[in-house]
Each structure stands twice: as structure tokens, then as C-alpha cells.
Amino acid sequence: MDTLRAMTIFVEIAEQGSLTAAARVLDCSLPAVVRTLAALETHLGVRLMNRTTRRIALTDEGRSYLESCRQVLSAVQDAEDALKEGASEPSGPIVLTAPVQFGQMYVAPAVTRFALRHPRVKLRVLLYDRVVNMLEEGIDVGVRIGALEDSGLIARPLGAIRRVVVASPHLIAERGEPRHPDALRGAPCVRFSGASSLAWSFPINGRSVTVPIASNLEFNHIAPAVDACAAGAGFGLFLCYQVRPQLEQGTLRVVLKDFEPPPRPVHIVYPHARLLPGRTRLLVDWLARELGKDSTAFAAEPA
Questions:
Q1: How many CA atoms lie within 13 A of 267 on its CB side?
Q2: Pick from 231, 222, 230: which is nearest to 246 by CA?
Q3: By the 8 A CB rule, do 118 and 89 touch?
Q4: Overall average pLDDT of the 249-264 stretch
Q5: pTM
Q6: What pLDDT is stored for residue 83 in this prediction?
């Protein structure tokens, strides 16, 4: 059995989510893909995937083997690249993920500049407002906001982002600027269902205090929630980069600065550095440098 070929097919099945899709991407027949997977499982003596007529799911052994396959195939690709003419130019695929709006504002422009400089690298950028399982979803590099829980990843800090309460100048003039979080009780607020929407937490006298929020307006996306706040519909709680354009334009103002919680850290995360392909290491270094330049912009409100 051609083990490297079998590994390649197995990885493609896992990433595509189906045998048929993997066969299409690999430009080979479906029976050949099925036979290769079966032969690989027989060779290893374990079931790698549970298969039904509708879906394929990795077994625990399959998830572990998938990561090993990716490492082996990356090492083979790096070895081949090192022997090819023009080996100084990186090549190969990289999949990267980041939060949607942060990715649009900061990560995507940095990745685009990288792509222009390194045209042989094939970059795929996935923007999600959720924490992805990098191993299961085939992600090489991630940008994350908030505390990190996955100890199996290497993290490089980029900075920290403030969480701020904002309101339109019109609403502040109408109701007066709040001096304490208790002033938000009963005040009109715009909620975002992706975060804690029924109560907001504030550090008061060394402890976290929650304030119940009254609202007749709730969104499941950030952009319309920000627009509603700028229109005067209520106070809003956001990460500062999410409202930076409105703060610069003067359509929103930050209030309750003395009661802001600790800033949320921002990291680049990736698998163990010893196993990192050269092209991925180059992208990580690029992002650390490029996003580091932007850290003062996304970490604080405009002066």
C-alpha cells in the first residue's frame, strides 16, 4: 500500500466531510477512495471513520491519526520544497481562522499583503464568531480574542482589547451621562445575543457585579447592533474595535470608563512550533508583525 497516498486521501476525506467530495477534489474515482480508506484501516487495525449513508465522523483514533497525517504530509512537502528550484519561495496550503469583524478589519488585509508577496502559498481564510477546533476542522493558524483554553496550541500575544459601553451623543444628552453601572438599570439598551445579553458585568470594589439590562431590541450580529446604538436606540456593550469607526466619526461615545473590565487578550494560535511547516511559520511571523502594528488601533478607542 502507498501509505503517503493513503494518508493524503484520508486527510482529504476528513477535510471535505464526504467520500464523494474527496474523490472530486483528488480527481479520482469514488470506489478508489473507498478502497483506499478500507485498506488503510485494515493496515492500521483500527476504524478511522464511522460511515453512514449521510455523514462521516472521525473516531477518536481517527482524530489522533489525522493530526499525525497532517504533520507527516507537511514534513514531506517541506522536504520536497527544499530541493526544488527557488526553494526560498514558500508554497503550499494554509488555512487560517479569525473572528468575523476583527478578521475583516485587521486579519484579512494582513493576509492579503502576505498573499501578494508569496503567490505560491494557497491561503484559505475562514471567519467565524465561534471558537473552532483547529485539529478537527483542519485549521493551521487562528487569531483568537479572549482567554485561551486549548493547552495543545502555541500562543503568541498580539495585545489586548477593551470592552466598552457606548451610546450616541443624542441619547447621552437626553438621559444624561451615566456615572455608575446602576444607572443602566431601566435605561434603553441594545443587546447582542452573541454575548451575555440579559445582564452586563462590571468590576465594582474589587468584585464582579452584574446589572440587569432592559431592552426591546436584540441582534445576533454586531454590525446592526452598533448601528442601532449610533441611531440612539440605547446603550451598547462592545469590544472597542467593533465601534471604532463610529467613535472616530463621533456618532458614538464611550461611557462608564471607570468601570471597564480587564481587557481581553488577543493571540495568534497554532500547533506545536516543532511541527510547524515553514510556510506556516512564515505566515505566523508575518501576522505577528503586521497585526502588532495595528495593536494600538484595535486595543483602544480613538484619542
A1: 14
A2: 230
A3: yes
A4: 93
A5: 0.68
A6: 65
